[in-house]
Design brief:
Layout (H helix, E strand, L loop, with lengths): L6 E2 L4 H7 L5 E3 L8 E6 L4 E5 L13 E5 L5 E5 L14 E3 L7 E2 L12 E5 L6 E5 L6 H8 L9 E7 L6 E7 L8 E7 L7 H13 L4 H9 E6 L4 H6 L21 H13 L4 E8 L15 E3 L5 H18 L15 H13 L5 H6 L4 E9 L10 H27 L3
Parallel strand pairs: 4-6, 13-14, 13-15, 15-17
Antiparallel strand pairs: 1-2, 2-5, 3-4, 5-10, 6-9, 7-8, 7-10, 11-12, 12-14, 16-17
Bound molecules: zinc ion.
Length: 418
C-alpha cells in the first residue's frame, strides 16, 4: 500500500479538547484504499482530501478512505479543484460497517452538488465510516462470488498470468463448451482501468446467467467456450490505483505495445484458443464520474459503436435485444446514450492504431475471426437507475441473454440458408 497510514491531524487549539474524545484520523491501508490527506482542520470541521494519482497523468477521481474520531460531528469534505468532478452524481458511496454494505450519500437518486465537496453528519455512536468514489470491488468480492459457481459442470478457476508486480495471480475463469467442439468463443474482460468497479457486478451477472440453465445460458453452454478476466489491472485494483491514464499508457491502450503481463497473456490466449471459432468479445468499463451537464451518458449504460460495417448489424441487433431485456428492470439500458458516431469512432481507432495505443476492442475487431467486439460502460452511481450490485448483476444477465440470442439467431439464419 502506498496510501496514508493513520494520518492524525495536528491538534489545533480546539482540537486538543476534541482529541480527548479521539482526534480525527483517516486511513486507507486496505485493498482498494486511496487518499491524499491535504489538511484536517478539527476546529473548523473541514477535511481537505484528494485522490492519490500516483502514476496517473491527469486529474482523476478514485478515492476510498476510512475516517474515525468524528462521532456526533458534521464535517465538510473538500476536494481540490473547482473545475473537476471528484464525486459521482449521487455523491460518495458510504459504508458504516467496514465495507460490507454501501449506500450513496443521495440514496434517493437526486443529484449531489457540487462535484468536489460534501458534508456528512456522523451519528453519536458512528466512530468509523468509509467513504469511496464508487462501491468497491476487488479480489475479496470476486472470491465471494466464485462460491456460487464452484462445483458447476466444467467451470474452472485458473490464472491468466502473474500480475505486473509478479506478486499476484490474474484470475481467469473458464466455462468450456460442454460438447467440446465449440464454434464460438465468448471473452469478457473488466478493469483495464483499475478504478472502474461497476463493471465487475455486470460480469458476475453474465456468469450467473451462463450457468443459470436458462435457454440463452444453455445455448452458450452447448456452443461456446467462455473466458472471463475480472481484473486486467490486478495490482492496480488491489492497490487502489486510478489505473486510467497510467503512465506511459494504461492497460486499455496497450494492445500494440504489450508492456503489461495481462494484455500480453490475454492476446495470446484469445488468438490461440479462438482457432476455428468465432470471437464474441465484451470489454466492460465505467465512464466519467458524472456528466458535465445535468444528464448524459455517464449516468447511464452505453456502448460504443463499431466503425466496422461487417460487425455493425450484429451490434445493432445486440443493442435492440438488450434494451428489450432491460425493460422494467432496476437499471435501464435503452440505447439512447450509445456512442453512435461511427465516423468519430473510425477516426479514434485509426489514430490509436497509428500511434501504437490500440485498445482491446479495436485489437479484437482486427482479428479475422472476430464476429463481435464491443465496449460497454456502466455509470458509477446513476446507471440507468441508482446503481447497486444487484442491479449491476441484472444488467449482466440481460446482456448475456441478448448476446446469446444475437449469436443463436445468426446461426439459425445461416443453417436455414436465409
Ligand atoms: Zn475504462
Amino acid at each position: 500500500m502506498q496510501g496514508m497510514h493513520g494520518y492524525a491531524a495536528a491538534a489545533l487549539v480546539l482540537g486538543v479538547a476534541l482529541a480527548a474524545n479521539g482526534a480525527i484520523e483517516i486511513t486507507c491501508d486496505y485493498p482498494g484504499g486511496n487518499v491524499k490527506v491535504e489538511k484536517i482542520d478539527e476546529a473548523a470541521g473541514v477535511v481537505k482530501v484528494a485522490p492519490d494519482l500516483r502514476d496517473t497523468k491527469h486529474k482523476w477521481f478514485h478515492f476510498d478512505f476510512t475516517l474515525s474520531g468524528a462521532a456526533g460531528r458534521t464535517l465538510h469534505f473538500q476536494f481540490p479543484s473547482n473545475s473537476f468532478n471528484y464525486l459521482a452524481t449521487l455523491g460518495p458511496a458510504i459504508s458504516r460497517d467496514g465495507g460490507t454494505t454501501w449506500r450513496w450519500l443521495n440514496s434517493d437518486g437526486t443529484r449531489h452538488e457540487p462535484g468536489n465537496a460534501f458534508d456528512y453528519t456522523f451519528g453519536a455512536d458512528e466512530n468509523k465510516t468509509r467513504f469511496a468514489v464508487s462501491i468497491p470491488y476487488n479480489q475479496k468480492h470476486w472470491d465471494a462470488a466464485t462460491a456460487r459457481w464452484r462445483g458447476k459442470e466444467g467451470v474452472t478457476f485458473g490464472v491468466l498470468c502473474k500480475s505486473q508486480s509478479g506478486k499476484r495471480d490474474t484470475e481467469l475463469l473458464r466455462i468450456p463448451c460442454r460438447k467440446g467442439n465449440a464454434k464460438w468463443i465468448f471473452a469478457f474482460t473488466a478493469r483495464h482501468h483499475a478504478c472502474e468497479t461497476t463493471a465487475n457486478a455486470v460480469m458476475e451477472g453474465v456468469i450467473d446467467e451462463v450457468l443459470s440453465g436458462s435457454k440463452e445460458g444453455e445455448w452458450i453452454r452447448d456452443n461456446a467456450d467462455c473466458v472471463f478476466v475480472p481484473f486486467m489491472d490486478k495490482d492496480g485494483v488491489e492497490n487502489g490505483d486510478q489505473g486510467k491514464h497510467r503512465a506511459p499508457h494504461d492497460h486499455n491502450r496497450d494492445y500494440t505495445a504489450e508492456i503489461y503481463t495481462s494484455v500480453k497473456a490475454f492476446k495470446k490466449l484469445l488468438v490461440t484458443e479462438s482457432e476455428g471459432k468465432q470471437i464474441v468479445f465484451f470489454d466492460l468499463h465505467s465512464p466519467m464520474i458524472r456528466p458535465r451537464g445535468k444528464t448524459g451518458s455517464s449516468d447511464n449504460v452505453f456502448t460504443f459503436s463499431t466503425p466496422n460495417p461487417r460487425l455493425a448489424d450484429r451490434v445493432a441487433t445486440f443493442r435492440r435485444l438488450w434494451a428489450e431485456e432491460q425493460k422494467g428492470k432496476a437499471l435501464v439500458y435503452d440505447g439512447k446514450y450509445d456512442d453512435g458516431g461511427s465516423k468519430r469512432q473510425n477516426a479514434r481507432l485509426a489514430k490509436a492504431r497509428k500511434t501504437g495505443l490500440q485498445n482491446s476492442r479495436g485489437w479484437v475487431e482486427g482479428l479475422s475471426n472476430c464476429w463481435f467486439s464491443i465496449c460497454c460502460e456502466f455509470g458509477y452511481s446513476l446507471c440507468g437507475g441508482v446503481f447497486t450490485q444487484d442491479g449491476g448483476r441484472e444488467l449482466g444477465r440481460g446482456l448475456l441473454k441478448a448476446a446469446s440470442r444475437t449469436c443463436s439467431q445468426a446461426s439459425e439464419t445461416k443453417l436455414s440458408g436465409k
